[in-house]
């Protein structure tokens, strides 16, 4: 049994981010060609493109604000003209902001999270799902978070955006399942990324004590689950919210 994405084309939004770049590399390692989305970091996008092409894969970079519908359609057309139809969409991009209490959080922060979590996914669906329906296959994967289950203080805008995103994915899974398109979410915990490996260790003892596996997850462990959901090995899984958090959150029946 092999996780093989040879001949598939994947779009990763926010591909230059800490987690996005590992997801992109992992999908390429499994054989996929990549469309690498970025909004500001063109240098990192070009570096990642070169890295993936050195693996023998095809790669293109696409730029734009994923909270705008015209961006999703423009990116779709650019990818189709270079790599062909997209088989795998990974909605990973998210707007960063400073967390504080509900009473102190700026209203625009709630709007930004709604736009980058909910509306990005809606626009990506409108742009790419029709292609997948024609092909009668496809993988639509969103990066959610354990925070959507935790509802801790100071997380309200992020949690609200991600919980709204969860609703979109569950409904979409039911709407497109007959076309053999799967729609799933990966929900990381507090993840160790390249930034953590090149800086002073953080104070995470309290967090790790709460995790049954007694450690933080690695970015590669998140990317592995994305690759599994992108593959034929996950062909009968849809509508799932899958925590990759060492057991820190556990959806209940």
Count of β-strands: 9
Q: Beta-strand percentage?
A: 15-25%
Gap between N and C termini, in Å? 30 Å
The outline comes out as globular
SS class: alpha/beta
Low-confidence stretches: none
What is the topology, as strand order, of the major beta sheet?
A: 3-2-1-4-5-6-9
Number of helices: 9
In CATH, the homologous superfamily goes by the name NAD(P)-binding Rossmann-like Domain
Please name the CATH topology: Rossmann fold
CATH top level?
Answer: Alpha Beta
**Topology as H/E string?**
EHEHEHEHEHHEEHHEHE
Q: What is the number of domains?
A: 1
- Could you give a short account of the major beta sheet? 7 strands, parallel
Tell me roughly what share of residues is in helical segments.
40-55%
Quick check: average pLDDT? 96
CATH architecture: 3-Layer(aba) Sandwich
Q: Provide the gyration radius in Å.
A: 17 Å
Key phrases:
253 residues; alpha/beta; Rossmann fold; two-stranded parallel sheet; SDR_fam; 3-oxoacyl-[acyl-carrier protein] reductase; oxidoreductase; oxidoreductase activity; NAD(P)-bd_dom_sf
């Amino acid at each position: 049994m092999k996780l093989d994405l040879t001949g598939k084309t994947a779009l990763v939004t926010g591909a230059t981010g800490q987690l996005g770049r590992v997801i992109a590399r992992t999908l390429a390692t499994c054989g996929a060609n990549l469309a690498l989305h970025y909004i500001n970091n063109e240098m990192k996008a070009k570096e990642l493109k070169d890295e993936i092409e050195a693996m023998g894969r095809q790669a293109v970079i696409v730029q734009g604000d994923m909270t705008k519908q015209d961006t999703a359609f423009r990116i779709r057309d650019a990818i189709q003209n270079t790599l062909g139809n997209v088989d795998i969409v990974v909605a990973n991009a998210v707007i960063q902001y400073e967390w504080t209490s509900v009473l102190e959080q700026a209203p625009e922060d709630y709007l930004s999270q709604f736009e980058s979590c909910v509306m990005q996914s809606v626009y990506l669906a409108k742009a790419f799902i029709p292609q997948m329906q024609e092909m009668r296959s496809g993988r639509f994967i969103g990066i959610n978070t354990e925070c959507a289950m935790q509802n801790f203080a100071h997380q309200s805008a992020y949690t609200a955006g991600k919980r709204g995103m969860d609703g979109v994915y569950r409904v979409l899974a039911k709407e497109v399942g007959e076309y053999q398109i799967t729609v799933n979410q990966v929900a990381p915990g507090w993840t160790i990324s390249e930034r953590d490996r090149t800086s002073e260790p953080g104070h995470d003892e309290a967090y790790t004590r709460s995790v049954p596996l007694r450690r933080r997850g690695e970015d590669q462990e998140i990317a592995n689950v994305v690759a599994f959901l992108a593959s034929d090995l996950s062909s009968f899984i849809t509508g799932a919210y899958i925590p990759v958090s060492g057991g820190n959150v556990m959806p209940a029946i």
